Amino acid sequence: MIFEKFFKRNDVHNENGIAPSSKPRAVAFVDFEHWYISLDKMYHVKPKIREWRDSLAEKYDVTEIMFFGDFSNQSLRNEISHIREVTNFIVDTQNTSPHHKKDFTDFIMLDHIYRKAISGDNVDAFIIFTGDGHFNSVVQFIVDRCNKEVGIYAVKNALSNQLRTSASWYEELPKEDYMAEYYEMILDNLKRIENSHRHARATFSKTVTMVAQRNNADEELVRTALEKLIQKGYILQKRERTRNNKMINVIRTDWEKLENDGMFPARH
Fold first, then answer.
1. Domains of the chain
2. Can you give the pLDDT at residue 198?
3. String of DSSP letters for 23-66
4. First vs last Cα of the chain: how many Å apart?
5. CA distance 39 to 229
6. Phi, psi of 215 (to 5 degrees)
7. Buried (b) or exposed (e) across 29-42, using 16+ Cβ within 10 A?
8. Fewer beta carbons within 10 angstroms: which end of the chain, N or C?
9. Beta bridge partners of 5
């Protein structure tokens, strides 16, 4: 069963007592399952819905924002109050059919987008929040056939390459580096080891395990953060010989580079 609540806004700015804007008129379609679930899985954070809407409103006269998702998922349902801070147009895509389709939300969302594109309403731009390649065709249709702008928002590292190339522009969220707190955990641990054990050698796997345990942190996120520090050249991997004449893989920290780049001040 599809449960829709239509509380349409003819002019968001006028409702707030603000004179009509000369900015392009836009409608936005949000795949909230993509936004919430991808953020939670990859970064362990929640969507900043009002912040996103405010950023969008700086560039566009947003006349309508529509959120889509299976709100039988309790985690998504808990966010409804935050969604209502920016719109009451919510489409619950829960599928009660025994033949459940994984992409049911995509299907319903695509239907709404096509209908809006074909209706010929006074809309200059379509904003679509999704990373799913299933939306490539509708993006191409709006850009090529309707001659209108399509902007894509998506969770960082969860955006289809097809959408990147088809859209007029795209932006990935979050903009912040959510690895920063894990970088600090790792660097604090490595500095502590160096200060307490002159000849200590840190290894990749032991560092991941120790940092995760000491900080009650997700081990996979710690691993990812350490890999990024290595990729950036702040931590080096080397083969060294132990006192027992064994060769092991160790990690060494370039503290000077970290300090020069403002990653780890000298006070540490």
1. 3-173 (3.40.50.1010), 180-260 (1.10.10.10)
2. 67
3. SPEEEEEEEHHHHHHHHHHHHS----HHHHHHHHHHHSEEEEEE
4. 58
5. 21
6. -110, 5
7. bbbbbbbbbbbeeb
8. N
9. 90
DSSP structure class, residue 202: B
Question: Which tens digits make up the pLDDT trace of 171-222?
Answer: 999 876 777 888 999 999 999 988 887 677 899 999 999 999 999 988 888 9
Closest CA to 64 of 20, 115, 6: 6
The Cα-based distances of 223 to 19, 182, 261 in angstroms read: 51, 9, 22
Residue 121 contacts residue 64 (beta carbons within 8 Å): no
Residue type, 64: E
What distance in Å separates the CA atoms of residue 22 and residue 5, rounded to the nearest whole number? Answer: 29
Given this model, what pLDDT does residue 20 score?
A: 58
- Percent of the chain's residues with pLDDT above 70: 87
DSSP 22-33: SSPEEEEEEEHH
Tell whether the model's pLDDT for residue 54 goes beyond 60.
Answer: yes
Q: What is the pLDDT of residue 101?
A: 54
Nearest of 197, 267, 201, 209 to residue 236 by alpha carbon: 201
12 pLDDT more than 50:
no
Q: How far is CA 165 from CA 71, 135, 148, 153, in A?
A: 31, 12, 15, 13
